[in-house]
Amino acid sequence: xxxxxxxxxxxxxxxxxxxxxxGVASSANLQITKxxxxxxxxxxxxxxxxxxxxxxxxxxxxxxxxxxxGGWLGLMLILLFTANAGFSGTRLGLCxxxxxxxxxxxxxxxxxxxxxxxxxxxxxxxxxxxxxAISLTLYGGGCVFxxxxxQLLGSLVASVGFSLSLCLWMVxxxxxxxxxxxxxxxxxxxxxxxxxxxxxxxxxxxVVVTCILDGNQIQEKVFPAPTADGIxxxxxxxxxxxxxxxxxxxxxxxxxxxxxxxxxxxxxxGVLFAIYFPMAAGCYFSLGxxxxxxxx
Length: 296
Prior knowledge:
By secondary structure, the chain is mainly alpha-helical. It is 66% helix and 0% strand. It has helices at 2-14, 27-30, 43-54, 62-65, 72-102, 113-122, 124-158, 166-177, 190-215, 228-241, 248-253, 261-287. Helix 5 (72-102) runs antiparallel to helix 12 and helix 7 (124-158) packs across helix 8. The protein is globular and about 65 Å long.
């Protein structure tokens, strides 16, 4: 009977789906050519980009975030968010691999990978929501950086007798940073990522050493007990320190071998943990409740 042969035929047709990700045909069946872009980012360079992009002004608030958590709970939150950011990064990497497997147009140069993932996942409104979220995140983070740089420059220049208002310094900083936004993709300015990560590591090391030296002069250190309000504030501060996932697909799209993005993400999370954990623990346990919102 033909009815009896239908299941056998259907089963053989379903065998083409041997997915690493559910519902995605295997690379052998799709016959996808694995293109390696010449001049693209390597695994280590991409990891430096990821960690340099995420390790920013948020690290300055980590010691103060420990006050309301009793210290140890805050350090556990840092460990939790490190694992969470690493997991999210690897999932975004798999999403982009799925798009490359299913849609040929995404195997070349793509300037908006995150909105593309959103659109293919849920439709046009996914692209719009992704673009709004990315714009708000980058705008907020950019404002924080401009204010912080303006404050630091103002204090440095004021020491030599030249003084300007914070508003004027913010305009000067914004104008100086504007040419950097004219570059194409991360692979066009990879030395900046290396410099950013190196300066962040050096600055954090100097801050930790300074806090330890200052802490040795404190007669009695006070470590407040954890409170619900303090834990919620620490949650927000630590989450901000790990903000930056919106740039993950952009960096992956510039890699020479995009399938290795997961390795870059895990390396980057290890670097961030190596920066954040000593910064929070060293400064807090050295100064106690005398740490400030901006440890600098």
